[in-house]
Amino acid sequence: MSAEWNDNSPIYRQLKARVVGMMLDGVLQSGDALPSVRQVAADYQLNPITVSRAYQELVDDALVEKRRGLGMYVLEGARDKLLASERERFMREEWPAMLERITQLGLNLEQLLQASRDSGAHGESA
Amino acid sequence: MNALNKDSVISARGLRKQYGKQVAIDGISFDIAPGRIVGLIGPNGSGKTTTLKAILGLTGFDGELSVLGRDPRVQRDALMDDVCFIADVAILPGWLRVADAIDFIAGVHPRFDRSKAERYLAHTKLAPKMKVKAMSKGMVVQLHLALVMAIDAKLLVLDEPTLGLDILYRKQFYQNLLEDYFDENKTIVITTHQIEEVEHILSDLMFIRDGKIVLASSMEEVGERYIEVMVGPQHVNPARALQPISERSVFGKSVMLFDGVARTQLAALGEVRTPSLADLFVATMKGSYQ
Description:
Shape of chain B: globular
Protein name (chain A): GntR family transcriptional regulator
Structural class of chain A: mainly alpha
CATH architecture of the largest domain in chain B: 3-Layer(aba) Sandwich
Strand order of the largest sheet of chain B: 5-6-7-3-8-9
Oligomer: heterodimer
Keywords (chain A): DNA-binding, Transcription, Transcription regulation
InterPro entries (chain A): Tscrpt_reg_HTH_GntR (IPR000524), WH-like_DNA-bd_sf (IPR036388), WH_DNA-bd_sf (IPR036390)
Domain HTH gntR-type (chain A): 9-77
Number of domains of chain B: 2
Helix content of chain A: 55-70%
C-alpha cells in the first residue's frame, strides 16, 4: 500500500477521509473490522498516534465502535449517516460555488443534463 | 535547573561533552517520554552521535543524564538489558554466520526470544549458514533488526539505520519496526538525514545545531506552530512585516515560513499549508556551514 499525503490538512484528517471514502464506496460495510492501528501504521508508515487519532474521530462521529480486545468495527447505518452528512455538506459548501460557476457561464439545465447523458453518467439514486 | 524527570525514558540536564577544545554538546537538557518515536535531527557535526553515545554509555560527559532510571556512566551493563542500538557502521564481524549471531545473543542476553528472531528471518533471504561478509548492506540491517526486535528492548536507538539502503529495504525497515516492535511501552530515538522518510513516523522532533537543541517539540505542536504561506505579490510587504523565518521563491510566488503566527492571520495573505520537515530543517539550520 502506498499513500500520498498533501500538506493542506493534518494526516489524521486525510486518513479519516480515506476510511470515510471506503465506507461511502461500500468497500467497508457495517460490521466490517477496520485494520488494526498497528497494521495501518506499518502499511502507511505513520506514527500509531496519528492512526489512533483518525480512528478516535470516527468513533466520536459514531461511525465505528471499539470492541474491547477486538478492535474497531463499522457500525450499523454508518453509510446512511455518512450519506446524509456528506449530502448536507455538499449542498452547503460545494453546490453554491458550483451554481455560481454555472450561472457565470450561462449554462442551462438542459445542457447540463444532456452533457451527463452523453458522458454515460447515470443519476443513480441511493 | 530542574531535576531529572523520573518518569522519562531519557532525561538530560546540562549534558555537555568536549573533545579537546571542540565542544560537541553544549549543555543540553531534554526529556523523552515512553511510547514516543523521537527524531534527533541535525547537520553533520552538530552533536547527534555524541548525544547517542552518551545515552548508550559509550562516552563520558558532564552534566546529568538518566536513561531508564539509570546512569549510563556507571550502570551501563544493567542498562544494556533494556536498550538496543543499530548503528550506521557495520559492527558485525565478516566471519559471523546468522546462526552464530543468534546463538551468541541467546547466550548473553536474558530477554532474547530466539523463536521471534527466527520467525522474522524466515521472511528474509537470510539463511542460517550465511556469513556477514556475503551479505548486502540491506541484509546486514535485516539481521540486526531480527536480533534487536527479538530482544524486546524498552529503548531502541537508531543511528542512521537506513543509510546506504535501497528504497525497498528502507521502507521494509520502518514497516517491520512499526508492525513487530513498537508499542506504547517502547521508545525509539532515531537520527537520520532522510527526514522525508521518518517525517510521519515521528511523534517528537529535536533539531540540534552546534551542540545545542534549537527545536524540541511534539509533531502536533510543530504542525500548529509552523505554517507555510504562498504569498501573492500584492501581500509580500505585509507578510514580510510578520517576520517569516524563511522566504523562497516558487513560480514567481514567495513561499514564506512563519513561526507562531496565527493561522487566520496568515490565511489572509495566501494559501497556507504545513511545511515539510525538510523545509523546516533548512530554514532552521540556515548558515550552519558558514
